[in-house]
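in:
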């Protein structure tokens, strides 16, 4: 199955670089480009890609607003968005996650890491680059106050344990080791968890865990 990608960046040279890297892979096809958020939304709606690689700072409509229009909770037929960022723009990353982004890569990402990130997001797994993700989660947790908005769905004990570990940035393999379960069993628990929470992917589950106070910074839970 070919992964269809739209590349969005206001710099033509960056778009060209991403196109070369992604287009060289046999299972990835770049089906469109855009230089700003307004154009990104139009191109994505026209081409219906599996993944939109989205820059943040752009003219007219920025990447956060464009992400919300393509992937926010409640959007009909949402598109997976992979945000391109740098660590000095962390506040934009948090806003993008709340807007519905499925993950992120750094602006200076290595080619193989970019390809891996696109594949992960296309597969619906959400979080990418676990070591980097955990740093962002820690900062997100530090700056996010719980925002209760009603009762949470009933979760089994295993689903709740899986949610806590997902929120700490652990992969399914790491969760399996922590809970002494098989990776396939963990995948089932995580899938059930996302369905009950109404989350499209793991990123949304992480954001929800911190916003609802299920996990708190420094608590070890």
């Amino acid at each position: 199955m070919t992964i269809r990608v739209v590349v969005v960046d206001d710099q033509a040279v960056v778009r060209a670089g991403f196109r070369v890297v992604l287009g060289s892979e046999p299972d990835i096809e770049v089906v469109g480009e855009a230089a700003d958020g307004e154009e990104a939304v139009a191109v994505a709606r026209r081409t219906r890609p599996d993944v939109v690689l989205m820059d943040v700072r752009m003219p007219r409509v920025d990447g956060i607003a464009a992400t919300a229009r393509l992937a926010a909770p409640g959007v009909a037929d949402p598109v997976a968005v992979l945000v391109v960022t740098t660590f000095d723009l962390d506040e934009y990353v948090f806003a993008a996650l709340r807007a519905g982004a499925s993950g992120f890569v750094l602006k200076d990402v290595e080619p193989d890491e970019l390809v891996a990130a696109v594949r992960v997001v296309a597969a619906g797994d959400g979080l990418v680059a676990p070591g980097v993700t955990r740093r962002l989660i820690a900062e997100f947790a530090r700056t996010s106050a719980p925002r209760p908005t009603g009762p949470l769905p009933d979760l089994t004990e295993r689903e709740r344990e899986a949610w806590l570990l997902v929120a700490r940035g652990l992969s399914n393999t790491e969760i399996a080791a922590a809970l002494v379960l098989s990776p396939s069993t963990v995948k089932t628990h995580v899938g059930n968890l996302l369905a009950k929470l109404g989350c499209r992917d793991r990123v949304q589950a992480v954001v929800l865990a911190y916003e609802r106070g299920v996990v708190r910074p420094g608590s070890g839970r």
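note: The mean pLDDT is 83.
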